[in-house]
Amino acid sequence: PEAQKIKIRDATEHRGKRIKVSGWVHRHRVQGKDIAFIVLRDGTGFLQCVLTGKQCHTYDAITLTIESTVAIYGVLQVVPEGKTAPGGHELQADYWEVLGKAPGGDEAFGNRLNTESSPDILLDQRHLVIRGETASSVLKMRSLVLKAFRDYFDSRNVVEVTPPLMVQTQVEGGSTLFDFQYYGETAYLTQSSQLYLETCLASLGDVYCMAESFRAEKSHTRRHLSEYTHCEAELSFINFEDLLNFIEDMIVSVMERVTNDPLGSQILKELNPDFKAPKKPFRRMNYADAIKWLNEHGIKKDVLDEQGNKIGEADYEFGEDIPEAPERRMTDTIGEPILLCRFPTEIKSFYMKRCPENRQLTESVDVLMPNVGEIVGGSMRITNFEELAEGYKREGIDPTPYYWYTDQRKYGTCEHGGFGLGIERFLAWLLNRYTVREVCLYPRFMGRCQP
Ligand code: 4AD
Ligand code: MG
Fold first, then answer.
1. Residue 148, class by beta-carbon neighbours within 10 Å (0-12 exposed, 13-18 middle, 19+ buried)?
2. pLDDT at site 219
3. Which pLDDT score, from 0 to 100, does residue 55 have?
4. Which of 22, 122, 317, 331 is the most exposed place for a label (fewest CB within 10 A)?
5. Element (DSSP H or E) covering residue 187
6. What is the ipTM for the molecules in this complex?
7. Is there an atom of ligand 1 within 6 Å of 443 CB?
8. What is the 3-state secondary structure (H, E, C) of 364-403?
9. C-alpha dihedral over 390, 193, 361, 331, to 10 degrees?
């Protein structure tokens, strides 16, 4: 009889019918001499298949190896009471074939990978690790999250653009630029597409992009990558309050889209059962109050001597960057999302607009999440030509290659602002992962550029 070729995801609709499924042997168990159980994986789900009697021996199901590819034909049956199988059904095979046999013995899949492998070995074997249940759930969630962001922007009529990633300008400081030779000239891998998004406002209205950003981060931390997916947006004719509201609404709405998706809510339950979706409005806190908070809670910085040895402790002072560790301690203690606002000009980028009420401060915001810390950085942008020139000067930036950015202030300037959200940090928060490396397909960080 005919067999319809299906993906495991759609199996339920085909119960009682003869089907063909192809996939990888995820698990394999033999009962006696004549029964083999295979849990088949095709990327869309898992399906238990039962091979009995003659079917067992046509291709030798008894010595089948994990991660071999097979095609199995048969009728899909609901499992009897008391038995469990993924999806509540199993395939009674009437024919099957091996498409690609994986090695056994020393080279067996299980010997390449085991749960005790060091993180470094697991990263070397990442192309095999992603076949595992946790890693593939994480990657499926990554896909759902990207889609949820796109759907959100779409619902707010924000237009997607794809800016160049090879550039000749910096956005977030020279120290983390990757440079390379571009037909005899020096070029960089982009740190942020923000400046290009700003040029699109007069052409397309509000815009966003989902693009890779690159940072030559010279330290190993839980949340820094050399290449990451950056979700950035730029909005015209808004004020700072509008910007904060947009970011908050986006995060809450993306979460709703993810939890309303059956696969999304299932993965969330599996990987982060205690997750509580954030509610509007988020707690708002000024940078100055964060410094106060750290001091009141006895969170101090180390004082080092010239050799870098710790010789004491001191309070954080206004004007200093709040490093990753104290930022995380504060966020974890408060235990909810924080919109941290109004950072001092000196520690922020050249393009940030100053606060009208206090010119020492900028209309800037970081979104902090428990377990990760900063997941979003954003600000209102300088609209004034002279003020921008001052910004270049303060940062020691040669304005020449920025002529196209400066032109935006000449030909019809406008109040505008935007932000960048690190997709990996968002996922690490959402799925409660220890590091952002776990939510990348193939993470890039200092010392690793393969697979
Ligand atoms: O705070 P950042 O540096 O801000 C910008 O790049 C702005 N130009 C964005 C904008 O306004 N359009 O980076 C924004 C976000 C951070 O909050 C963080 O989530 C993520 O990008 N990020 C990183 N993620 C992983 N690894 C790194 N090395 C990251 N650096 C920044
Ligand atoms: Mg930042």
1. buried
2. 84
3. 77
4. 317
5. strand 185-189
6. 0.99
7. no
8. EEEEEECCCEEEEEEEEECCCHHHHHHHHHHCCCCCHHHH
9. -160
The confidence score (pLDDT) of residue 33 equals 83
Of the residues 199, 215, 227, which should be mutated to test ligand 1's pocket, given the most ligand atoms within 8 Å of the CB? 215
Q: Are the CB atoms for 364 and 342 separated by under 8 Å?
A: yes
Q: What is the pLDDT of residues 240-265, one digit of tens each?
A: 999 999 999 999 999 999 999 999 99
Q: What is the pLDDT of residues 96-106, one digit of tens each?
A: 999 999 999 98
User: Pick from 440, 442, 450: which is nearest to 138 by CA?
Assistant: 440
pLDDT in the model for residue 32: 85
348 Cβ closer than 6 Å to some ligand 1 atom: no
d(CA 194, CA 203): 15
Q: How far apart are CA 428 and CA 343, in angstroms?
A: 25
**Residue ranges, the chain, pLDDT below 50:** none
Q: Which residue has the tokens 């004007």?
A: 319
- List the structure tokens of 373: 């810390």
Residue 257 CB less than 6 A away from ligand 1? no
Report yes or no: 88 and 127 within 8 Å, Cβ to Cβ.
Answer: no
- Report how far Cα 263 is from the mean position of its chain's Cα atoms: 17
Q: Look up residue 421 and give its two tokens.
A: 């959200």
Atom of ligand 1 nearest to the CA of 376: 17
Q: What pLDDT score does 114 carry?
A: 73
Q: Alpha-carbon distance 70 to 280, whole Å?
A: 49
pLDDT value of position 309: 92
Burial class, 339, CB count within 10 angstroms (exposed 0-12 / middle 13-18 / buried 19+)? buried
C-alpha to C-alpha distance for 26 and 226, rounded to whole angstroms: 33
Pocket flag, ligand 1, residue 416 (CB < 6 Å): no
